[in-house]
## 1
Amino acid sequence: MSGDRRLTWYRQMVEIRLFEDKVQELFMQGRIEGTTHLCQGQEAVSVGAVSALRDDDYLTITYRGHGHALARGMSMTAAFGELMGLTSGCCRGVGGSMHLTDFSRGLIGAFAIVGAGLPVAVGAAMSSKLRGSDAAALTFFGDGATNIGTFHEALNMASVWKAPVVFVIENNLYGEYSPVRDTTPVDDLADRAKAHGMPGVVVDGQDIGAVHQAVSEALARGRAGDGPTLIEAKTYRYRGHSRTDPAKYRKPGELEQWRERDPITLLGAELAAAGLLDEAAQKALHDEVQQQVDDAADEAAQAPVITLEEVEDYVYAH
Amino acid sequence: MSTRTEGAVAEPEAGTVELSYREAINAALADELASDPTTLLMGEDVATAGGVFKTNEGLSDTFGTDRIRNTPICENGFMGVALGMAVTGLRPIVEIMFSDFLPTAADAIVNELPKFRFMSGGQCEVPVTVRAIGGGTGRFGTQHSATGESWYMGLPGLKVATAGTPGSAYSVLRAAIRSNDPVIFFEHKGLYGRKGPVVRGDGGISPLGDAAVLREGSDVTIVATLLMLDRALAAAEQLAGDGIDAEVVELRWLRPFDVDSVQASLAKTKRLLIAEEQVHVAGWGASLISELTLRGWRWDNAPHVVSLPDHLLIPYSPSLEDALIPSAERIAAEARAAVGK
């Protein structure tokens, strides 16, 4: 693993963390409306997995997808603009927080329906295979999605067809407000791979290097024609399910315990120990990113709202 | 994409040919698959035995099983797969073995296909054609006999089409496949053996959205789809013997909804009869009356409707199924009532 790569990862994770903190702040100020689903704590999964993709690979993400989109290279301005409902947004403000989409980066869909993105990723992977490309697809989804039909339907089809697709479960221990142990009868969700004839891999979702390696191996397997892989990244979300959820269902001390294994802190310690980025440099980087975040939010806010006439063109392609 | 199309398909015959409704579907699929290498057909048993209604016979031999692809039994899942294919350069055609199975894929049909382009801010096109095989008279019982034609007509972003003759099956299906938007195309399994003229070739592709006047007349306008269209044409023959001149309009597209053509016909006949193999509530017939009324159409003669009863479901018993699904005789009788003869 090159030092350069880890430095990039570190910066990307800090960008996602501070972006999400800013989103929360903008909500409190009423500058972003509706709902949002933040991913502080899960940054290593987004960055570790997405950094294993090639530019021509496909990606489907979920309503908790700000981190995935930023990891895939979406600009903060395009992401903020989308959350603000303005033309500076990646979907010109039509999609909103739950639908950060960018076809120019192979980010072909962000789904607000649990489980809906999995078959779409299988379709993209099959499309790639049928067109003679070795581009693969990766789909992120939460622990809760492993109980919905499309999860099993998608894994089954991908396995039967040997589709080059990587299924990444972000197991953050809660499906909306419910602990996974109350809704799901297996400890390791990756065990469900066995029922669909593919490898199931459990990975420490706070360890970005481990995530990256597991996803890289799965992508190589898919490209080689050996079919899909199910990866379960065990992680944690620091915030509640959505904006209005104070997460009072957590066990006392649980959040604090997970914060001790914060993915940014862990990689920061590794970089400091390796002499690549000491604490002072990390602090400077945080300050720099904070400025970048604030500037992006201000820039995004300058754009106008799309007109209803323009929006009409998006209903049908004709 | 790996295909075996070279030399495998005979040049589509141009001009008018006599085909069964089943052969017309097969010809439309073959001609589109031959003309566009990004098209493919997928669904349950579509390759095996050519589909349960044999509409795809020979296609897997010609185009290979990559492009004529059997799926597991999971409608919502493979509808999502089709979406993923459509936004990455392919043009999938999905067969739903019975229209009654469409609700199994309701998330894909209601939330994904019609909304995908919109939510992305116009970044993509979603050229998916869903062929749904529906309708009664087959003695398939309560869960295999719905036409389903009106279930999804209230969804902006989706297009909905039907075909009641071999000619419209060919021309409308090809137009649906060429659309860059998602289309649900409804077929009727009671019509597969029905023969009729088909204008084969690119010249036979009808304009998307247009209704068609299949028989001209001046006394009453009968608007129908699918099997009811076939029976409306038979009813018009019977009426002609009584000196009643019926105009028969096939509502080939339910979204977009061609009210103009119906209104133009009504301007001539002043009398409307709707024939539908579904309950009247919340269907295209009710919407048609509503649209005409909203346009200020003056109902000097109240519209007439022949439909399935609102208080019953389709039973298995053959004689009961036959009694419920409107016959040509019932349509003719209602037309006489509309005309006052």
Note: The longest strand of chain B covers residues 272-279.
## 2
Amino acid sequence: MRHRQAIALLALVGLFVAIYLWLHALGYGGPIKCGTGDCDTVQASPYAVLFGFPVAFYGVVGYLGILIVAIIGLRPAALGDRRWTLLLALLATVGVLFSAYLTYLELFVIHAICRWCVGSAAIITAIWIVALSALRRPALPTSPETRTDPVA
Amino acid sequence: MNRFYVVLAAVAVVLAAAVFGLLKSGGGAPAAAAGPPPTVTDDGFRGYTQGSADAPVEITEYLDFECPVCATFAIIQMPTIKEQLINTGKVLWRYRDFPLPIHRYARFASHAAQCAGAQGRFFEMHDQLFANHQWAQTGRDPSSLFRDLAQRAGVNLDEYDKCMSEGRFAQRIEFSRQEGDQKLVDGTPTFYANGTKLNFRRLPTSDDFKRVVDSIIRVSPPKPRASGARQ
């Protein structure tokens, strides 16, 4: 349960990072707050748009999906069901691979680093690690008490 | 379990407020540099130039940094023009600002180039603005990107920020635009050879300029000089 709670919290943070980047990509809020990074260089590159949508949009969809799955997996009836853990690990793996591809583009193609993108990469990597460690743990007992305990 | 959802909701509220705050404090292009000045005075500046001051032909280009055709011309044609005409001493190329009103950040980009020019980096900034021209297609506020480009162009950012925030060259840019109006500039880029407007039916190539320059050199009329020219 703690794993899914941790994943839900991390996905929530990642969701808002992606929402900020998405809204900026749509033209809201003026220049991006980036500190010492090169966020605008990254956002203005041709790689900032994928299949007609800003890359951040896929982040919003991905984090929202992970958040929803984690919350559904936290229902008492689902706590003992390892399929939700498996699904979270699967989604996180897709996210990590996508994030690794974007980081590669930043480092070796665009030659600029966006600290928001680095933050998002760290969040999805943390989600992936938590999801994998949850997969390695034995399944919770699925007794009726466990499934229906509202404060479990 | 319920406590967790309360924590989750509280975190969501805090994050939403943080994102709202970030968007709200967006700042953006300083109005002094992005908009037309209330008054216009002539500071004697007549554009940055490339080439020999003794070149027999002077080409003046009225350009808009947000104009995609200007970017195409700068990237595709200018390297050959520099090699064949400017570096060989045949042409003095003069850059004049003509920010079109339909382009939201054209004046701002001109101002960024002028602020870089004040530090001796006009041409580096000119190249950065055109080489990274995606900014002109996004419609997003490019002020942060321009700072990045200025940094890449070797510009001191503290001085650049000061120059941009006070709109130091807004009047100079507007003077150039009004000068373009008087010369009947009707689009960008528009070119003049020794003061005569060149009417191309399409975006000119380096070969077009070579023909024009060679024909002028053959006839060799005296070249009128713009006063106050700087390089």
Note: Residues 2-24 of chain B form the longest helix (23 residues).
